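Revision sheet: structure tokens.
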Amino acid sequence: MAARLEALAAPGGICVSRTVHDQVRDKLDFSFDDLGEQSVKNIARPIGVHRVNIASAGHSAHAKSSASVSHHETASSPAIVVLPFSNMSGDPEQEYFADGIVEEIITSLSHMRWLSVIARNSSFVYKGKNVDVKQVGRDLSVRYVLEGSVRKSANRVRITGQLIDVTTGGHLWADRF
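Predicted:
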């Protein structure tokens, strides 16, 4: 289970199960963000997940909520997450292809040293879910979200992508290929 929780954590972050949270919440000097129930690979039922908010150590819960700033927002490099692309082809076998496109984009973006890119394992917890990009930004401490879709019909492929600023919810860029 620890490996599955590690995959849900943002880079440099820590996620714990609800059981661990309940055991330590009053014994440690940091707060936790409830991420709700998460389905993870090879675990039969969804598990309650909490993100450890180490930045809140030494601060009251009120001070934390009124002055919360994510690590990535204060870092010198902007942070982005590439969400799993939607398979619009109607062919379930194309999921593999759509996932491969996302993996290629993540890999390419990771070569830009000035850009902090969230790992595939963290972004793929949103696969198949309708998400609020502002909430994704808060959950993963990123400012930018890249989302899109893949359509394959016969020997043609159309890939669309939209870059969204999570602070406004507005599109910064969109294109199709």
